Amino acid sequence: MTSSRHFHNVEQYLLPADADETQRLSLQHRVVVRAFGGKLWSGPPSLQALQGADVLDSGTGNGIWLSDLERRLAEGGVAPGHLIGVDLSDRQFPSASPRRLATLQVADILNLPAEWTGRFSLVHQRLLVAGLSGAQWKTCLGQLLRVLQPDTGCVELIETGHFAHPYPAGSPGDVLMRVLRQTFAKRGLVFDILARLGDWLAEAGFVDVAVTTVEIPMSRRREDGHEAGENFFRGLLGLQEAAVQSGAIASRQDYIELMDRVRAQWDADDTCNTFAAFSARRPAT
């Protein structure tokens, strides 16, 4: 059976890069922002402090975070400098920018342009757990540190801890986690990213590392869980191709049927997905 999904031309990144995934990213944005109390980032700087400032969205996807930021800046009467989103390909970029200030461009977050050194007041990055190995995470953090303004530049990284969720042994969720951990291991990815990211930020040279954690319900029995559950369900379905290729599960049909059982477990057990926002600052020297 041939996959109908389309992917980035990079083996490391497990999720698709097609119209369905692009649409899901907009749903994911609503879910994550709502979970963090409507905030686009949890630490400094303030929205008003972005007057004349440059902002980078690393791994921008369809640019939805930048679009939301631009709207909020306009509503707050704040005129930023440049708002830039980068990704490893332009597959998910909108055909026309919905707003005037944001620029989306192809760039490698493991090797950002040298001329960006010390440029940005804020760097945002969200949910690259399925795209970076441990070594790549450390390279990425070094690059983000370099492009931030010394002393005042801040980073915000949002990641999920669901790949380390302690499902009951033998349950559908437990089976899925074993499948995905094998899939991640095959690509050198880090499933327990929340346990590592704080230390890696400090090792990279960041200071004032802080973590804000939220629990996002996924049960369709809860009013606040239906949309989130749909987002995470679709996101995890997007990993089926990688799971089959890794040998962690026999077929895409087996994976889909497993996901159906997992979603029923989310409903029955009122399962939540742990998300964490890591904020940190580049020191003066």
Helix and strand succession? HEHEEEHEHHEHHHE
- How many individual β-strands? 7
Rg from alpha-carbon coordinates: 19 Å
Low-confidence stretches: none
Level-2 CATH architecture: 3-Layer(aba) Sandwich
Q: Helical element count? A: 8
CATH class: Alpha Beta
Give the helix level as a range of percent: 25-40%
Kindly estimate the percentage of residues that lie in beta strands according to DSSP. 15-25%
Q: What would your notes on this structure say?
A:
The chain has 285 residues and is of the alpha/beta class. It has one domain: Rossmann fold (3-Layer(aba) Sandwich), CATH 3.40.50. It has 8 helices and 7 strands; from the N terminus they run αβαβββαβααβαααβ. β1, α2 and β2 form a beta-alpha-beta unit. The longest helix is centred in the last third of the chain and has 18 residues. The chain starts with 18 loop residues before the first helix and ends with a strand. This is Methyltransferase domain-containing protein.
